Amino acid sequence: LCFLSAAVVTIKEEGRSRCRHKFRQLSRDVCREVFDVPEDNRVLMAYEKTQHTETHIGEISFQVADTNKQTPGIPFDDDYYHQITFLFVKQDFHGRGIGKDLVEKCLQIMRACSQRPVRVQSAEKAVGFFQKLGFELQGEPIESACGVRLFRFMYNMEYKFS
């Protein structure tokens, strides 16, 4: 008889300084470019755990709105709003709900702090993903000076809690 061990996916919040190396490595694995966790961001990491191993398969960095700020400023990334800054999921795990689970957990944390809108600047490739989760496009795409092709055009998107 052969018994297959089921893999379990867990999501954990990790401190920025403690997870920087893992965050940078996964960003390099996913898009061939190294990205760091922005200052004042929180990080959720997704792991697939089997009987003998735990593999880092996804991550999201985000910033909770500054509730001391009473009115929004002009820029899209103003601290008045919640912000998702990065979302990476290993290619082999796309289509398994890992990204959706990371975003939903992030939204739960944000909603617990305030009902302010959530903003993300999405790569073109991820616009449909965010739309499926309830994010709406805001304005025209912005051409990025970033050298990575994946991020050539960025799309401002917003999610409003209902």
From TrEMBL:
Pfam families: Acetyltransf_10
Domain N-acetyltransferase: start-end pairs: 9-162
InterPro entries assigned to the protein according to its UniProt record, in alphabetical order: Acyl_CoA_acyltransferase, GNAT_dom
Name assigned to this protein: N-acetyltransferase domain-containing protein
GO molecular function: acyltransferase activity, transferring groups other than amino-acyl groups
Entries under PROSITE patterns matching the protein: GNAT
Signal peptide feature range: none
